[in-house]
Amino acid sequence: MIGVDIGGANLKVVSESGVFIHYCPLWKETPIREILQGYSEAKNAAVVMSGELADCFSSKQEGIEFIVSAVKDVFPDARFYGTDGLFHDFPVPELAAANWLVMADILRDFYPNSLLIDMGSTTTDIIPLNAWDFLKRQTDFSRLKSGLLAYYGVLRTPISSLLRSVSLDGQKVGISTEYFACSGDAHLLMGMITQEDYTTQTPDNFHTSRYECLRRMARMVCADVSEIGEESALFIAESYVKEEKKLIEEYVRTLIDRYACNRIITAGIGSGILSGWFDTINLNIEMGKISDAMPAWAVREAYLRNG
């Protein structure tokens, strides 16, 4: 039995033998079947998704239908977890973006009255585990409105989404809105992730080395590193991280006050980053590699729990 989390950028699998993360950009190619064929010896698959939002689909429903069809080609009896907290056999609308809810479904029994922050490559889910009835049937749109979803992540967020200007050599400089650099570059330059963590494609399709990250960061002010210096390129990265931290802190304060959560737990590839910002229980430490694929683990656990 495997648990599968199909996002727009990654496909994650949890089985009895371990955790497996595959880069699977749905907007460029659709290798879902090919990846899952590698696990075809499993008895069945419990699946959760968020990849239906990829812009290669004209609607979320089209994305749901495509993903369900691709999975069922390999696992005909696969079950799909929905935002109603139930498993489904068919591509119903409730399957859209239920990956965060299945985490809450499992973790709420282990960490009651806690606020879960799951920081992934693209987004950050901020989930009060003591509000289960409210959480059910929430969509990405409603979560954006209520502050349960912050569309900022460890690797894929454009620098210009948070940073509009920087002060270099005492002078305010505007930031380009081109996709020259991303949060992965900033976090690597600040020592918050390693090259091994930087698993997604870079904005320019070049390497994830420190030099290439510096070069991309300098491009945010339409310059080369030789033109502005390494220190200025690093300052752009630092400025982005400061804005990111300020934003996430605001989300967290609001939800802790609203739902009277008494502790914070963190998961995802950004769990270590969050633990540096808040007093947390780091599920990367508590649960090891599973924390990097929490929805895939949780959907498997939910399926096994429900029989």
How is the CATH topology of one domain named?
Nucleotidyltransferase, domain 5
Mean pLDDT: 96
Helix and strand pattern: EEEHEHEEHEEHHEEEHHHHEHEHH
| Beta fraction | 15-25%
Percent range for helical residues? 25-40%
Assembly context of the chains: single chain
Say which CATH homologous superfamily of one domain is assigned.
Answer: ATPase, nucleotide binding domain
**Given the structure, what is the number of helices?**
12
Largest sheet at a glance? 6 strands, mixed
The end-to-end span amounts to: 12 Å
Low-confidence residue ranges: none
Order of strands side by side in the largest beta sheet? 3-2-1-4-5-6
Q: Identify the CATH architecture of one domain.
A: 2-Layer Sandwich
The CATH class of one domain is identified as Alpha Beta
Shape: globular
Task: Determine the structural class based on helices, strands and strand pairing.
Answer: alpha/beta
The total strand number stands at 13
Write up this protein.
- The longest helix has 30 residues, at 230-259.
- The protein is globular.
- It has a domain at 2-99 and 293-306: ATPase, nucleotide binding domain (Nucleotidyltransferase, domain 5).
- It has twelve helices and 13 strands.
- A six-stranded mixed β-sheet has the order 3-2-1-4-5-6. The protein has a five-stranded mixed β-sheet with strand order 9-8-7-12-13, sandwiched between helices.
- Helix 3 packs across helix 12.
- The chain is α/β, with parallel strands linked by helices and 307 residues long.
- The mean pLDDT is 96.
